Structures are given as C-alpha cells and as structure tokens.
Amino acid sequence: MSLSVQQRAEFVATFRFIQVFLMETIARWVPQTPEMEVKVLFGRHIWELAQQADSLGKRVYELRAPLQFSLRPVESYVQVLEEFARTETTPQKISGFYDVILPGLAARYRNYLERTDHLLDEPTTRVVEKILNEFQKMIKESETLRKELPQLCLADKNWPAHLAKPEVSVPTIVAHRPSAAIA
Amino acid sequence: MSATQNFDAALFGDGPARDERFTEKRRWAECANFPNDHPLKHIEFFHRQMNEEMNGVENAAQSLADFPDADWNVRMSMARQCADEARHVEMFRRIFESRGGQLGEYPILNFQYRIIANLGDLLSRLVVQNRSFEAGGIDAVTYAIDEARKRGDQELVDLFEMQQADEITHVRFANEFVYQTIRKDPRAALQVARALTLASTAFMQVMGSEGVGSVEYLADERGRLEAGFGLEEVKAATTQAMKRRASYGSH
Description:
The structure holds two protein chains of two kinds.
Chain A: H1 5-32, H2 36-62, H3 75-85, H4 90-115, H5 122-148, H6 159-168
Helix pairs in contact in A: 1-2, 2-5, 4-5, 4-6
Chain B: E1 24-25, H1 41-66, H2 72-98, E2 108-109, H3 111-116, H4 122-150, H5 154-184, H6 188-212, H7 221-226, H8 231-249
Parallel strand pairs in B: 1-2
C-alpha cells in the first residue's frame, strides 16, 4: 500500500520526535557521566542528532506540516525511550544507545525506505539515507572508544536484551492521526 | 581554612561528575598556579583549559536538556556548541599530552558549571556562559595568540586561532538571543543584570583577588564586534579592562 503525503509527514515527524528525545537524553547525561572521553563522545553526537532532527524538521514542512513539527510516537515506544533514558551506569548508557536504540531506530528508518516510493519521496529518502550513514559512523566511534577503554564495556552481556526486547516488540511507532490533523 | 569557607552556597550548584583521575578544587588559590616564567606554566594551562572546555560542553548540554521549549534555532546553536567544546577538549588534551602532561596531573576547577547550571533560566545562562565567560575568553585568547607567536610556538597559535573562531560564533548566537529577548520584553534587561551580578560575585569568591590580579590582557575590540557586541558595549569592555589593569598595577 502506498503512503499519502500526510502519512509520510507523520513518519518524518515521529522520527524527529525520537531524534530530539535522544539528543536531550544524552545531553542530560553529559554532566552526570564521570568519564571525560564519554562526555566528549556524547558532546559530539548531540550535534549529530540535532542536525538529523533539523533535516527531518525541514522535510516535514515540505510535506505540508508545520516547520520542525514533531509527532509523539505510540505510547509503547515512548515507554521504551523513557526506560532507556533512566539508564544509570556508563557502560549501560553506551550499550543502550549504540547497541540497542540506534540500531533499532536504523531498522525503522530502513523499513520506511522499503515502504516509500523513492521517486515520489526522494527528498525524504535522501535525508534518511544520510542519517543512516551517520548512525554507522556514530556506532563505529563508540566501538573505537570501547576498544580503547575496556572498562566502558558491559560486564553483563545479557543486559542489552533487557532493552532490546521491548524495543523490537513495538511493530510500528507512528501514532497516525485523522486526515489533515497535523497541518 | 576550609575549602568552601566564605562561599555563598546559594551561588553554586552541584559540580559535574569527574572520574578518579581528576582532583577538583573549589578555589583558584588551591590550584597549581605557576609563575609566568615557570617551565610547567603552559603545560598546566593546557590541562586547566581542557577542563574548562569540558565545563563548556557540560553547560551547553545541561541547558539543552533543561529548556526543551526554547526556540529551535537556539537549541541548534547550543547543540553545535556541545560539539565545538568537545572538540576543544580533545585539542587541549592532544597538545597537553604531546608535551609530556598526564591527565589528572594537576587540580581542576569546575566553577563555570557550578555557577551557570545553578541559574534557573536560559537567558541568564547564556548571558553568563557565552556573553561573559566566553567573551572574556575571546580577549584572553587574543593575548595568548600574541604571546605564542612571540615564542615561535606555531602549533599553539593554530590551536588558539581555531578556538577563538569557535568562541566568537558561540558569543554571537548568545548576543542575538539576548537582544531578541530584550526587544520582546525590556524587563529581561534586569534579568541579564542580575545574572551578571550573581556570576561576578561567585567568580570573585572562587578566584580571590590573587586570581583576577594576574589578568594582563585588554578587551579584543575586533573579536567582540564580530561576536555581535554593540560599539558602546565594546568601548565599555575596553575601559573596564584598562581600569582593572591599572588598579592591579597599583597594588
């Protein structure tokens, strides 16, 4: 089934909500995180997340929604994000963000690319493909840091599943609205 | 004397987290303040500056988290500042370690975070962090560039020039935000004045007369104009710096 302009806007606005939520979460963690190298990594990635949110916010306007419009995802996914935001230790924060949340979100972006028509929706496709490339770079940087500082690696290798299980259990993240409700 | 004696607790919030490599002090006088001709003077400065840049990341990040309803363009600028200051941490770490320093070798101060994150609104935070501390940084870096050039230290000249370009951008967006806010609500000027008074009082409690007495530089008029200060503000900053220097010189 093809997507309407409004449905595309809803996807893009939902992705923007998530990007901003992640930006705010790791921003909140910066002063609370003891390790200098992690603060630096988060500090750099705050800007990546902000630029990604900004691109989505400009694209959503082209899809006839307000400029920089965000749409809150379905409640079950918001709960996943909020659980993630409550993560306490540095290894869990790093693993939760780079091993679970970003790959999970990347899968949802790829799912969008599979659903949308790449010719009709080429501008969104370009924004999403750029974000996916940047996610890879961000994840790689976190892996490099964990190799340099092994104390940042998780002792409990089963911990990511605790966050990943509810993340994958949410099949769709968009809380669709009645026609023309987001304009 | 206790480290926090004569500190007005209301002016300072909790400090940011640091790992066990670092030792935080609360007063300038408790740091490793080498005389200008001491061989460790510059090395220690790189370590101190690296941590101040860390405070820059922490303050911008804290404001990004604390003010989700702020204008998106201002939030973008703060997010950019997080990345810039993080890069500055790495720049100072690189030069510090390449010249023989070891992380945590010297005590650090986190007064910038303790003062700024303690302010309850974004206008006050940007006025103090960007328009006051970072603007002072533009002046200090101009002086430091000249000094590094005289010593033939091109690596440091390059570092400082890039740092200064970034700081001018940070001060500029804060100036734009402050002017816009005051245009919308002239009473915000009182908020600005109050924030500056609180920060200045807290700063003096940290630095003491011996800390500020070592300041030798004047205002960088060109840098401040580029950063969006008005001509009158720049002249006032110059006059104030000259008076300050004359006053220290007479002690």
